[in-house]
Amino acid sequence: MPLTEFHGPYADLLYEYVSFRQALGFVVPPSTRRTLHHIADYLYTLPLVPEIIDRERADEIAAARAGESGRTRQSRFVALRQLCLWLRRCGYDSYVPPAGLVRARNDFVPRIVGEDEMARILEVAESGTLPWVPMVLKLLWCTGIRVGEASSLRVGDLDLSAETMYVAHAKNDRSRIIPISRSLASATAAYLDGHASDTRPEMWLFPGRPSSAHRNKVAVGNRLRMVYRDAGVLRPDGTPIRTHDLRHSFAVRALENMAARGWDVYVTLSLLSAYMGHANIFDTEYYLRLLPSAHQSIVDAEAPVSRAVFGGGPS
Q: What is the pTM assigned to this prediction?
């Protein structure tokens, strides 16, 4: 949606807010632009007030709408709160809704894949006749990128000497450069040497048919589901895991590795968010689940505290 669609007495202020966000390096995705557009239209119908957004107006903007998902409402609330915080910074006495006032409820539980299961998946993939299949899986497992991001990589997006990968125009048009491991760089180099028919930078890493297009992400996902099935890596209902579960698994492993190194997880979540190409930290939090082994680690770490407070149990 073009930013010129802001109307009303606060249109210039909203343009200034968007420019401020962009100057900080944030992408203003279409969903946020739509929210700001609706806020501008709503305020246009009301009398001017010094706060611009008072509590009554904030509550009206954040109110649940018929047929709206909780996640959509939460996104609208986050955009509203960020705008109100900026208004406060600019000197307006704007009301700022409390953080966490609107939270999306999502009962979906992703299937977290363990390292032994991933080893089985790769073993099945490498026993097949399509060399691109294990290469895609290695990229997904080692970097946590989306399957659409992997399928649309160009040869020049990988700087194997610098051990980095450029993900161009991903979800919400967010581009990013991410580091990759030395082992993944070596595996990619071997794939290019042994199986790529054209290694010019502008060529697709996984060309489709015709080669002027990259492989379709849906077709890639369907092929990978066959691998998960043959490897016996299934969901509780007996169906193969989703390829997106590998992205969830990457986020969990990254969090556990940070915790094992003694890093402040709440601080490093912002780094993980940027690495995964999320628009905000709430998206990253949605990905985080603990493996069963991690639950036991937490119990073991907490046990001395429980004994000290409640007594009993082995010393």
A: 0.62
